[in-house]
Amino acid sequence: MTTNWPELTQALSADLKTLRGGAPAVMKAFSAVAQSALAPKALDLKTKELLALGISVAVRCDDCIAFHIKGALEQGATRDEVLETLGMAIYMGAGPSVMYSSHALAAYDQFAAAKDGAGQRA
Hints:
With 122 residues, this protein is mainly alpha-helical. It has a domain at 5-10 and 44-121: AhpD-like, CATH 1.20.1290. Helix content is 84%, strand content 0%. It has five helices and no strands. The protein has helices at 5-22, 24-38, 45-58, 62-74, 79-121. The longest helix is centred in the last third of the chain and has 43 residues, at 79-121. It is globular, with a radius of gyration of 15 Å.
């Protein structure tokens, strides 16, 4: 099965909007935690997105992979930086992290291609 990662994030965003409407207090609190965790301090936002990607692979969350690949790419992460992050996730998570790292790399390639295509159309 081939996943279209950009489409997945769009569908998930719609689902999350519905969840925010149904559980607004919980989702507002979660959003506050996310904003606080992602605020650039000692670590910049790109580094934090790469950390989140590694954790996403380690905990085997495809949906998380999609959002954090997108976020890392938006912060300027290169394919080499993503690959190094995936190497650390594999080191820490062994075989299952190998499988989810392949998902993350496919997601990166799709988002990068979409970004490059948008830049060429501009």
